[in-house]
Amino acid sequence: MLQGKHILIGISGGIAAYKIPELIRSLIKEGAQVRVTTTRNALQFVTELTLQTLTNARVYSDVFAAINEHSTEHISLPDWADMMLIAPATANVLGKMAAGIADDALTTTFAATVARKPVVIAPAMNDKMYENPATQKAMTTLSQMPNVTVIDCAEGFLACGTTGKGRMQEIDVLQEEVIKSFYAKDLAHKRILITAGPTQEALDPVRYISNHSSGKMGIALARECTRRGANVTLVLGPCSTPLKGGEAAKVINVVSAQDMYQAATHEWEKQDAAILCAAVADFTPTQKAEHKIKKAEGQTELNLHLTLTPDIAAALGAAKTENQWLIGFALETQNEDANARKKLNSKNFDMIVLNSLQDAGAGFSVDTNKVTLIDHTTTHNLPLMSKQEVAQRIVDAISALL
Ligand code: PMT
Fold first, then answer.
1. Helix (H/G/I), strand (E/B), else coil: 95
2. 399: nearest Cα among 183, 118, 178
3. What is the pLDDT of residues 306-359, one digit of tens each?
4. How far is CA 66 from the centre of its chain?
């Protein structure tokens, strides 16, 4: 994902600096090259040797140090960088950057970067300093700069022992923002609803009927749409695939087909498009037993009475306006093409993504998929690829519609 990208990290003097070496390792693992600039105070929280060892490069922390590789490192580093991440950004550094003050290695480097390269800023401070009107004004000023993204602080336990807003966002959120900075925002201002994962239909308080969906395909779609600037609402059935921070603007966790139906139909009116990737149970037990179903003496079988669940796709298809686009999936095991085309028409989809359990590496749980994109005039067979690449190809097709 970050292969060959040059990422410049600016660290200022907040306790959250201790998390940055871990982030550097993770970015390098993704193929990036990382260089670091710091304020003097940052080196009270994380050592120069740690940063140097991880990046295999000198740390730029002193504008006048005789050992600097170039006499004007605050100019050469921005030329080298594809983007800059400033994390943690203290109240002091935010104020300086917003006011155009450049009086140390980090702030001079920011000043020489911001007009030409994407910059992501992750503030971190005590909650009282966060509430300072000057800090708020600095964050607003910075977020209005064309190349700048400010990742607002999280609420939670703060290093000073109190609880409040001021925590730096977790490093997976920071990494996702770094990745997003390399994406064209072709879905900016678009609202996209995505259903993903399985549903669970309760038989009694301890058992349920479900399927093998891991949520991987749907989460990959949410991630791809978000990276491309869309506002994503993800309606997610119970699954263990981790959803990282920043991969969807809103997540609605649901359990049953009925829950998913309620969430999806409630959200649909506000959306430009929906991608229905969830593996929704078609049937649910007609009655959920109040207590655990016990086997009786001599009993050899149990008959379940099942009722059809609401068809989410058909409901959204019926309510669809001419400005909305509906994309469905079809998971088939036989007569794939004919079954998918039948669903394309009966559910009023604009496009259907066909995957077949007959294809090795396709469908449930695996990290790959092999799909065919079918709309009312064209058919595209795609080769086996990762679910993230499949998501990219599906979203390319949707972007052309929107
Ligand atoms: O989650 P993964 O492990 O990554 O696996 C991905 C996947 C195999 C689940 C995914 O690629 C996929 O194929 N999803 C759709 C599975 C499915 O239930 O297909 P279907 O052919 O039964 O349903 C057709 C369409 O109607 C689907 O868009 C489905 O979301 C929708 N549907 C079905 C039933 C229902 N009650 N409401 C619906 O909206």
1. helix
2. 183
3. 999 999 999 999 999 999 999 999 999 999 999 999 999 999 999 999 999 999
4. 43
The number of the ligand 1 atom at minimal distance from the alpha carbon of 315 is 39
- Measured CA to CA, the distance from residue 106 to residue 64 in angstroms comes to 13
389 CA to middle of ligand 1, Å? 19
Pocket test for ligand 1, best of 195, 213, 260, 268 (most atoms within 8 A of CB): 213
* Contact in structure between 285 and 306 (CB atoms under 8 Å): yes
Query: Which alpha helices (DSSP H) does 230-307 contain, by range?
Result: 257-268
Q: Out of 160, 225, 239, 277, pick the active-site residue.
A: 160
| More confident: 246 or 361 | 361
- Does residue 280 line the site of ligand 1, with CB under 6 A? yes
The stretch 348-377 carries a mean pLDDT of: 96
Give the pLDDT confidence score for residue 67 in this predicted structure: 54
* Ligand 1 centre distance from Cα of residue 260 (Å): 12
Q: Which helix (H) or strand (E) holds 355?
A: strand 351-356
Q: How many CB atoms lie within 10 A of CB 338?
A: 9
Please tell me the predicted confidence (pLDDT) of residue 73. Answer: 72
CB contact at 8 A, 271 and 320: no
> What does the pLDDT read at residue 70?
58
Q: Tens of pLDDT along 201-212?
A: 999 999 999 999
* For ligand 1, atom 36: residue with the closest CA: 311
Residue-wise pLDDT for 2-24, tens only, equals 999 999 999 999 999 999 999 99
Sign (positive or negative) of CA dihedral 154, 155, 156, 158: positive
State whether the beta carbon of 219 lies less than 6 angstroms from ligand 1: no
C-alpha dihedral (262, 263, 268, 271), degrees to nearest 10: 180
- 160 flagged as catalytic: yes
Entry pTM: 0.90
Rounded distance between C-alpha atoms, residue 251 and residue 234, angstroms: 5
CA 1–ligand 1 middle distance (angstroms): 27
* Distance from the alpha carbon of residue 359 to the mean position of ligand 1, in angstroms: 16
Residue 81 clears pLDDT 90, i.e. is over it? yes
Position 142 pLDDT exceeds 80? yes
At 111, phi and psi to the nearest 5? -60, -30
Check pocket membership of 42 for ligand 1, CB cut-off 6 A.
no
- Examine residue 310 and say whether the peptide bond preceding it is cis (omega within 30 degrees of 0): no
Angle at the Cα of 123 from the Cα atoms of 121 and 128, rounded to 5 degrees: 155
